[in-house]
Write a structure and sequence with these properties.
Elements: H1 16-27, E1 41-50, E2 53-58, E3 64-68, E4 72-76, E5 83-85, E6 100-105, H2 109-112, E7 114-122, E8 127-137, E9 140-149, E10 161-166, E11 172-176, E12 195-199, E13 221-224, E14 228-234, E15 241-246, E16 252-256, E17 293-295, E18 301-306, E19 319-323, E20 328-335, E21 338-345, E22 353-358, E23 364-368, E24 373-380
Antiparallel strand pairs: 1-24, 2-3, 3-4, 4-5, 6-7, 7-8, 8-9, 10-11, 11-12, 12-13, 14-15, 15-16, 16-17, 18-19, 19-20, 20-21, 22-23, 23-24
Length: 385
């Protein structure tokens, strides 16, 4: 059946010049001083000593699952705080940026117990982004199977993407990076380098994908021309798909995904190569989408969530983006489907932030990156009497 328009929303196409000016203006400054936001929340540490934590997800009973890039899936008991490894995870290639990435709970988990894990599959000579599915039975995954191996084989350990999300129609989204030195393949529909993929929970192709008729790797592609997208979120209120991706030296982007859209990398970019050389002379070309937001210099965006909770009602509908390089969270104020303003929050943590998620009661949960990573919870500060 075709995907309903409320599932995959096609944003209005704007002139590239207007979008570029908006992105540039919004990159100029971001602060939280005019909002006084620090007085509205408190941050508490729940866990420390984690080994490069990458992603977290909440089970219906309130327990928390989180991945460590080094290959472990852990479960935290919401009552006791006890943390234990989950057995049955896939064998993972851990090197460079490779390892265990995202963890995602099936919408029907209460009846099917399914979870999904994205990870680096393969070895030094040949590896790629893959998705594994299994049934969670306490602290063990059973009936495990690899449902998707991206058509993006490489012999480097960089730019995997690896973020996942469910659409309202039950299909899955997966970001796949450009492999770093395969960047031109982001424009080639015969590979999955630099793509956003859409597929069924069993790994099959939805017949209404924009390039399904082409068959092969192209059949899975929802959008292309991405660099290394490590944040994706579907707004539960509107169905809009938000995605952010790392630029090279500057040029980090936030994009609204248009089904079948070409987001330009590397033909257009607001960033430069790490050597300082131009990647492309163009920031816009006909037929290529413009970002909603650009950061230059780079903030190195990581996790992404659309906040819809009650704990911080003034943030409802905003995008919260974890940032590695700038060591904070960027709150993007979304109005009428467009990014209208930006504020910096949680900068007092002073650590690389890998993921940000909305949890039970609308509280926010953060993962800090590194060999001594932490799990933090953000709750409202009670007003003084």
């Amino acid at each position: 059946m075709p995907v309903a328009h409320s599932r995959i929303v096609k944003p209005l196409r704007r002139g590239w010049l207007l979008a570029a000016l908006v992105g540039t203006a919004m990159t100029a400054a971001a602060s939280d001083e005019h909002l006084g936001e620090r007085s509205h929340y408190r941050i508490e540490e729940l866990l420390s000593g984690l080994d490069h934590p990458w992603s977290l997800a909440f089970l219906p009973d309130g327990d928390l699952l989180f991945t460590q890039r080094s290959g472990a899936l852990l479960r935290r008991d919401c009552e006791t705080g006890e943390v234990a490894p989950v057995a049955g995870v896939p064998s993972t290639y851990v090197a460079g940026q490779g390892g265990l990435f995202d963890v995602l709970i099936d919408p029907g988990f209460a009846s099917n117990r399914l979870i999904y894990i994205s990870y680096a599959d393969g070895d030094r000579r040949e590896n790629r982004t893959a998705v594994f599915r299994g049934r969670l039975d306490g602290k063990t995954l059973t009936d495990g199977e690899v449902i998707l191996r991206a058509a993006a084989d490489k012999n480097t350990a960089h730019h995997y993407g690896g973020r996942m999300a469910f659409l309202g129609d039950g299909t899955l989204l997966l970001t796949v990076g450009d492999g770093y030195d395969r960047r031109n393949a982001a424009q080639d529909l015969s590979t999955h380098f630099g793509k956003l993929l859409r597929f069924n929970p069993d790994g099959s192709v939805p017949p209404d994908n924009p390039f399904a008729a082409l068959g092969g790797a192209a059949a899975f592609v929802l959008s292309y021309g991405h660099r290394n997208a490590q944040g994706i979120a579907v707004d539960p209120a509107s169905g809009r798909i938000w995605l952010h991706e790392h630029g090279p030296r500057g040029g980090d982007e936030v994009n609204l995904i248009d089904e079948g859209g070409n987001y330009g990398w590397p033909a257009i970019t607001y960033g430069r190569d790490y050597s300082g050389a131009a990647v492309s002379p163009y920031t816009a070309l006909e037929g290529m989408q413009q970002p909603q937001k650009v950061w230059s210099p780079s903030i190195a965006p990581a996790g992404l969530t659309v906040y819809r909770g009650d704990a911080f009602p003034e943030w409802r509908g905003d995008l919260l983006i974890a940032a590695l390089k700038s060591q904070d969270v960027r709150r993007l104020d979304v109005r009428n489907g467009r990014v209208a303003d930006e504020a910096i929050v949680f900068a007092e943590i002073g650590e690389r932030i890998r993921d940000v998620r909305e949890g039970p009661k609308g509280y926010l949960y953060l993962l800090t990156d590194g060999s001594n990573g932490r799990l933090l919870r953000v709750t409202p500060r009670k007003p003084a009497k």
